[in-house]
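Researcher: Here's a chain I'd like modeled. Treat it as a single chain, no partners, no ligands.
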Amino acid sequence: MDQGIFGQSALMIARMLIGAEFYFQDCGGRIVETEAYEADDPASHSFKGPNARNGAMFGPPGKLYVYRSYGIHWCVNIVCRPGSAVLLRAIEPLCGLEKMMARRNLCYPRKLCAGPGRLAQALGINADHDGRDIGTLPFLLHWPEDAPDVMVGKRIGISKAADYPWRFGLRGSPFVSKPFPIAQERP
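Model: Modeled as a single isolated chain. Structure tokens:
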């Protein structure tokens, strides 16, 4: 995979990732929801510059930025150009369901990876994977062959710049973390 593709705007990559398949070891599925965070975005962890927590966001594109949210959940991002990243919010589980269900103590696939914390827990991604290359095993990313029908909406779960329409989702997917408002479905 050409890692140079990630050196673009997080907005562009967040939309492009919808419909792609993302795997870690023998677990993963289709990306159905993402959010973009740019360097000049007040909601981005990189907004005030590099620090010990967000260092991966200022490294090469195509690396993972993994952080703990609310001191509880790991969240997985793919770094784009310096200081920007795409948060993986939800995937449709396609592979390794039994392992993911055991990690989450859940037997209902619809909620298995619907939300960034759930996604990381189900896949088994944690701080040890921060800064790892998305194009190197045990990670695998397959771009979609056809352009999916993408919904656009405001980001969720944040307090700053929450009105930015930088959340993207696969139209009709029951695996997104939260439904998209009808009025914001079209780009």
